[in-house]
User: Which sequence fits this backbone?
């Protein structure tokens, strides 16, 4: 296992389109790094450059001590799991698993031992003599996983491996992959993983660290908790979290204390909250997660008066959609705390919890409220 | 996708509807059912008649090969009244010093190298066009496709002169060698279309697994390409077996004649044609193509239909 390093890696296509703009990323040995972002953010391209399936047009990719820019995929010490499994359709599972080892001309008994070990770990022993077309989606993905595992690579690359599975299977595969990663770590052969997904649930639950990308730029690299609690910019804040963070234009003024003004309504910010805001007075983007917005009686101090536009009953919680001064808000209320008398058109107060308020620069989107 | 490892049998919840007995059908339903049956019988009768008309010449050919020469033109019906295999015996010995076996072997000497050469060279060229970027690819591909439209006759004379200079006249080389250089653009085009329908991930996975370009081709692409490749080989087999003009131009020694020329030979040689022996040998000449076709039928149909619809 080895560390993976990307230094100002760029990708410019033949037609001049620049997909990746000088990315710097270090994945520690044994770390589970998730690349996440909306479609078209070049996360897959980045992964494919690491794999050697796309040429690197600038910068350097290093696996361990080796610069791998000009090495063919097979010589990079990587293994990859593809979104559509990419099993070889004409080979039985056993041969699919051992294909890489057979190419290396390993001894037969060694190949057999490795195949058995891997199929044991992934519980696919019963499938060894089947063809890929005889496998279900989950089984095929496990075989694809096995094909990567058997090579004992320096770095594992996953390209949206679970997006072709149904929700239930996806959840169990998620656990299986993270379990496997922990198990390898405990057994003293930690696996360095780069995992691409567009699904933030996968990103948050699986990653040791998450790299959020947008338009070929890295927006933030951090562990899941930091990403959620201290997003570096409005993009990350909006991308991570369900439902999305409320991002609304407001005006910040500092007189006796700091005030946030939304249209004609203002709320005063407590000193400890105002202290960490280092944005200049003027328009800002106010960010507050739906979970951090309390629904109170209209007219309450420290709350914006709003009108309910929709109520979504989710079971364990209720999503309350409301509008205040033309700005849309979503608040999440636990079902047991929800006042069932509330209905569309009612007036409520929305009170942001001061310690969870984020203030972003309007232009750059940078978070100006990190202490 | 359903899990195959899950053995829980699906018990049918809804009992299948018991078929209504005719007595319980309303007159309207009865009428509809009768009309559907009538329609079907008309459809099938028509198909059977037309199918029989189309296949009749072939039936006649086979039947007539067992007739005597005298009976040959007496009746258009295909069934021989006095079946005889004399036609086969006479035909096989031929009017030349060689038996028909020689001509079969000659044909195979052209067909086998040509089919193999076509399969290999067309695959290589198609792989290049379908999977790699290189300078001038578009122009080269356009030229390749343009040769599809070029009539054969145009190149006959220059080719003949070229092969004469090489001293290849009266050998099989003029027919075989071009096939080893992906000479027939049609096959290349067919394989390219088929390859385009194969997802690239498998090849990428193989590259990650450590395969080089050639190993990817051999271990991954060719097995997936097999249906199309079978079609290519089958087409080439049949066309070469049936090729008359090529051997006619280049082969001058009777000993080297392939079947197509040998059949003509028996017509030329005698004044009163031994029709039954000619027909008997024609039946034999057809057999290899038919056998190969039926053996490869499944792959063949898969090959042409996939290449056609997904291209």
Assistant:
């Amino acid at each position: 296992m080895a560390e993976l390093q990307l230094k100002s890696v760029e990708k410019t296509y033949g037609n001049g389109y620049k997909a990746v703009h000088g990315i710097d990323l270090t994945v520690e040995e044994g770390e589970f790094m998730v690349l996440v972002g909306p479609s078209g953010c070049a996360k897959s391209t980045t992964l494919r450059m690491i794999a050697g399936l796309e040429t690197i047009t600038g910068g350097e990719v290093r696996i361990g001590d080796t610069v791998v820019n000009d090495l063919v995929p097979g010589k990079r010490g990587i293994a990859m799991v593809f979104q559509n499994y990419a099993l070889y359709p004409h080979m039985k599972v056993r041969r699919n698993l051992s294909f890489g080892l057979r190419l290396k001309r390993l001894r037969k008994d060694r190949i057999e031992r490795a195949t058995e070990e891997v199929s044991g770990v992934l519980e696919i022993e019963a499938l060894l003599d089947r063809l890929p077309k005889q496998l279900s989606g989950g089984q095929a993905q496990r075989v694809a996983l096995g094909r990567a595992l058997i090579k004992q690579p320096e770095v594992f690359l996953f390209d949206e491996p679970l997006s072709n599975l149904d929700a239930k299977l996806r959840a169990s595969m998620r656990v299986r992959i993270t379990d496997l990663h922990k198990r390898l770590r405990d057994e003293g052969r930690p696996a360095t993983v780069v995992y691409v997904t567009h699904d933030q649930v996968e990103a948050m639950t699986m990653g040791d660290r998450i790299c959020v990308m947008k338009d070929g730029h890295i927006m933030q690299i951090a562990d899941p908790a930091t990403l959620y609690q201290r997003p570096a910019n409005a993009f990350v804040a909006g991308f991570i979290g369900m439902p999305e963070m409320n991002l609304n234009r407001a005006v910040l003024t500092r007189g006796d204390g700091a005030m946030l003004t939304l249209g004609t309504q203002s709320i005063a910010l407590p000193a400890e909250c105002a202290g960490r805001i280092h944005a200049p007075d003027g328009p800002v983007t106010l960010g507050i997660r739906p979970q951090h917005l309390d629904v109170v009686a209209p007219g309450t101090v420290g709350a914006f008066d709003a009108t309910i536009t929709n109520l979504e009953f989710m079971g364990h919680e209720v999503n309350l959609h409301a509008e205040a001064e033309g700005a849309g808000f979503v608040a999440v209320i636990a079902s047991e705390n929800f006042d069932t008398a509330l209905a569309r058109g009612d007036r409520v107060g929305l009170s942001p919890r001061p310690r969870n308020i984020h203030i972003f620069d309007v232009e750059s989107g940078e978070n100006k409220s990190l202490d | 996708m359903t899990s195959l490892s899950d053995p829980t049998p699906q018990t049918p919840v809804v009992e299948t509807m018991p078929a209504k007995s005719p007595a319980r059908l309303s007159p309207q339903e009865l009428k509809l059912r009768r009309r559907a049956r009538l329609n079907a019988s008309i459809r099938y009768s028509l198909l059977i008649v037309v199918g029989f008309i189309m296949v009749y010449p072939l039936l006649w050919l086979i039947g007539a090969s067992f007739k005597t020469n005298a009976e040959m033109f007496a009746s258009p019906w295909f069934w021989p009244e006095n079946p005889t295999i004399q036609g086969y015996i006479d035909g096989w010995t031929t009017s030349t010093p060689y038996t028909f076996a020689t001509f079969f072997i000659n044909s195979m000497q052209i067909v086998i190298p040509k089919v193999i050469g076509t399969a290999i060279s067309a695959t290589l060229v198609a792989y290049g066009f379908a999977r790699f970027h290189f300078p001038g690819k578009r122009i080269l591909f356009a030229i390749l496709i343009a040769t599809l439209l070029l009539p054969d006759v145009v190149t006959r004379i220059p080719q003949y002169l070229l092969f004469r200079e090489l001293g290849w006249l009266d050998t099989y080389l003029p027919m075989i060698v071009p096939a080893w250089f992906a000479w027939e653009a049609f096959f290349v085009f067919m394989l390219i279309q088929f390859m385009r329908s194969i997802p690239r991930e498998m090849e990428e996975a193989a590259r990650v697994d450590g395969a080089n370009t050639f190993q990817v081709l051999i271990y991954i692409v060719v097995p997936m390409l097999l249906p199309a490749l079978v079609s290519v080989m089958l087409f080439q087999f049949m066309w070469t077996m049936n090729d008359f003009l090529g051997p006619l131009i280049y082969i001058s020694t009777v000993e080297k004649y392939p079947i197509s020329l040998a059949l003509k030979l028996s017509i030329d040689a005698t004044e009163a044609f031994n029709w039954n022996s000619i027909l008997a040998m024609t039946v034999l000449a057809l057999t290899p193509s038919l056998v190969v076709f039926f053996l490869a039928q499944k792959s063949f149909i898969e090959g042409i239909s996939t290449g056609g619809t997904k291209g």
Observations:
- Residues 4-229 of chain A form a domain with the Rossmann fold fold (CATH 3.40.50.300).
